[in-house]
């Protein structure tokens, strides 16, 4: 089958030709499955927005985008804990089924009342306040919260509550009238949504293909076909771009941008991504139980130097766990994390540290510059007397009891401190559940006020308390918001939108266009 590069495709469009407008993306990573409910990975987040819709949409062109209708045309709080939503009619799934309240209730309750273990994890860390969804009529649903919810629209805009078809999903395996775990496993490899592009091919970890869905309820998708191919090495992605094998590539570090800028046929778009690369520390490891040792590990890291060396100064080094995207909850005045090697030496002495080896585990390629950062951090530790070692593995070890420190990321899953710090570090959240972080009654009390108060100032005060706890008994150090770039053919006009969660490949109408020459 003949494939036309973006430049060729543009010409055919302008000429009114019947040839397809196709785009090839070279991606550092390609997901192994596509299920918006179970996924919260940086890799997976690339692939949902083109395929699925939420009930409530946002204006992603803005840092703090206003909410607007999507699959729900209106929503009203009918009781303090009950939201009623009117659904858009004439919406079709990619398999041709009509979307009704039954599909919406099924989609929401698979998360709110989760029985599938991966859904239970996502439900617990961000949707625990929701009790159930119920059908009122074919195009009206009600959602019941357990207590008054200050973040209704925010949590209805989550990837995890994108809408999927009930009958199709139940019919994938076993009893077609029952939603079984095997159905959800099968769905993740044969996903169906209501978005402008249907996934027509998925080779886990290797290839994903979108094709325009002509029955999409909204504005027509601008591309006929998008093929995303796994190209793990930066050099191979840049070569693919130069040779025309790819039209757009992901995850270009700042030190590679000169190669793009030197080629008149190419260009780049980038931003400080809405996530933190972090160093996590196991508070329950025998060597690290004394919080003064973990404080020293954190105080020894010169994050500004890391930024200059690895990101050419383009990353954002935070004073605390906060992002501008949090709006009224943005709190840069807090000073939770700092560089103080002298204090680090003092704390090590006070803690009676005797030179025990502290292992920093790192993925080899998953995080841009992740391994380089790990190597630099271990050298910084050495300067204050910490005996560090880098251990490179290709699997997640955050739940292993013998894990000491490692690289990770804290993405902004939604634009609120709860959607970044909170998802990871809540009482009984992923970090505590994996055994490397501890909370107590005082932490939980601060958390409750932060999470559920309707008053912004009360939430800010409670968040400051949580950050003080993190400072004194640290389980993590946010290193920086990495500056990630996407490189592309000069005729492709695309850039990450400020209101999206990290890494979203948004190819909807208005998000991508092509130059005419």
UniProtKB/TrEMBL annotation:
Q: Is Signal a UniProt keyword of this protein?
A: yes
Q: Name one Pfam family in it.
A: SBP_bac_5
List the taxonomic lineage: Bacteria, Pseudomonadati, Pseudomonadota, Alphaproteobacteria, Hyphomicrobiales
Protein name, entry field: ABC transporter substrate-binding protein
Secretion signal, residue range per the UniProt entry: 1-20
Domain (Solute-binding protein family): residue spans on this chain? 66-418
Which keywords fit this entry according to its UniProt record? Signal
Which family is annotated? Belongs to the bacterial solute-binding protein 5 family.
Database matches in PANTHER family:
D,D-DIPEPTIDE-BINDING PERIPLASMIC PROTEIN DDPA-RELATED, PERIPLASMIC BINDING COMPONENT OF ABC TRANSPORTER
Q: Which Gene Ontology terms describe the biological processes this protein takes part in?
A: peptide transport
Q: Which InterPro entries does the entry mention?
A: Peptide/Ni-bd, SBP_5, SBP_5_dom
Keyword Signal attached = yes
The source organism is: Aquibium carbonis
Any single GO molecular-function term of the entry would be: peptide transmembrane transporter activity
Major subcellular site: periplasm
Tell where it localizes. Answer: Periplasm
- Gene Ontology cellular component list: ATP-binding cassette (ABC) transporter complex; outer membrane-bounded periplasmic space
């Amino acid at each position: 089958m003949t494939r036309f590069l973006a430049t060729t495709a543009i010409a055919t469009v302008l000429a009114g030709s019947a040839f397809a407008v196709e785009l090839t993306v070279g991606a550092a990573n390609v997901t192994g499955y596509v299920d918006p409910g179970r996924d919260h990975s940086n890799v997976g987040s690339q692939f949902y927005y083109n395929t699925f819709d939420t009930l409530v949409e946002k204006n992603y062109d803005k840092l703090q985008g206003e909410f607007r209708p999507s699959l729900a045309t209106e929503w009203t709080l009918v009781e303090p804990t009950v939201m009623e939503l009117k659904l858009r009619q004439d919406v079709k799934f990619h398999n041709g089924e009509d979307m009704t309240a039954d599909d919406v209730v099924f989609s929401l309750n698979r998360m709110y009342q989760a029985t599938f273990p991966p859904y239970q994890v996502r439900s617990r860390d961000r949707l625990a306040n929701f009790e159930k969804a119920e059908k009122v009529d074919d195009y009206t649903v009600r959602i019941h919260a357990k207590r008054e919810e200050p973040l209704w629209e925010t949590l209805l805009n989550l990837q995890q509550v994108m809408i999927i078809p009930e009958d199709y999903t139940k019919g994938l395996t076993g009893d077609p009238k029952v939603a079984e775990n095997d159905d959800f496993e099968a769905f993740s490899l044969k996903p169906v949504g209501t978005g402008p592009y249907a996934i027509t091919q998925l080779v886990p970890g290797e290839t994903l293909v979108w094709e325009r869905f002509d029955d999409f309820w909204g504005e027509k998708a601008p591309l006929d076909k998008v093929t995303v191919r796994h190209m793990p090495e930066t050099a191979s992605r840049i070569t693919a771009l130069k040779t025309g094998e790819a039209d757009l590539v992901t995850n270009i570090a700042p030190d590679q941008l000169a190669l793009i800028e030197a080629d008149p046929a190419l260009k780049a778009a980038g931003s400080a991504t809405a996530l933190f690369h972090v160093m996590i520390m196991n508070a329950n490891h025998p060597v690290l139980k004394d919080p003064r040792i973990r404080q020293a590990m954190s105080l020894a890291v010169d994050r500004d130097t890391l930024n200059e060396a690895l990101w050419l100064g383009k990353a954002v080094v935070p004073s605390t766990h906060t992002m501008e995207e949090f709006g009224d909850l943005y709190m840069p005045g807090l000073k939770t994390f700092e560089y103080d090697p002298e204090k680090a030496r003092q704390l090590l002495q006070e803690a009676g540290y005797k030179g025990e080896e502290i292992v920093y585990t790192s993925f080899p390629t998953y995080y841009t510059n992740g391994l380089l950062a790990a190597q630099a951090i271990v050298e910084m530790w050495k300067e204050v007397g910490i005996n560090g070692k880098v251990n490179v593995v290709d699997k997640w070890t955050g739940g292993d009891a013998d894990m000491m420190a490692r690289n990770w990321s804290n993405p902004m899953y939604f634009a609120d401190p709860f959607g970044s710090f909170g998802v990871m570090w809540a009482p009984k959240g992923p970090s505590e559940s994996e055994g490397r972080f501890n909370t107590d009654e005082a932490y939980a009390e601060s958390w409750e006020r932060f999470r559920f108060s309707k008053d912004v100032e009360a939430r800010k005060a409670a968040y400051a308390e949580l950050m003080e706890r993190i400072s004194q008994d640290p389980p993590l150090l946010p290193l920086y918001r990495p500056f990630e770039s996407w490189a592309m053919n000069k005729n492709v006009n695309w850039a990450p939108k400020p209101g999206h969660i990290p890494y979203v490949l948004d190819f909807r109408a208005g998000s991508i266009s092509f130059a005419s020459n």
